[in-house]
Amino acid sequence: MNNNRRRNFRPRPQRNNFRRRNGSMNSNNGTNFNSNGNLNFNRNGSMNNPHNVEKTMQKFQQLAKDAQSNGDPVLVENYLQHADHYSRRLSELNERNKDISKDDKNNNPVDTSTKDLSKNSN
What we know:
There is one protein chain. The chain is mainly α. It has a domain at 46-105. The chain has three helices and no strands. It has helices spanning 50-70, 73-107, 113-121.
């Protein structure tokens, strides 16, 4: 067996029954767009996690500080705008999570199993 030989990638021809993830048969030259027409760089929903959003916001704030120390005011403003976007996104996610937790508290029924047991023991 020769393990040193490199394997060449041979593309397979597309078949008519090939299923694409988005369900459409037209191609966008390899670019994925979401329903709003924006570039879909975020396919796995990682920006729905408040921890990831907060980390990204802090990254752009640090990049803005670094650009400030390098003396590039345009890049500073760019990074600060990105950080502001993610801070707004973080507040939206926190508000949504707060609303969901309120709904869960209001919709959870009271556990009556202990009350039923006390009635049966008498």
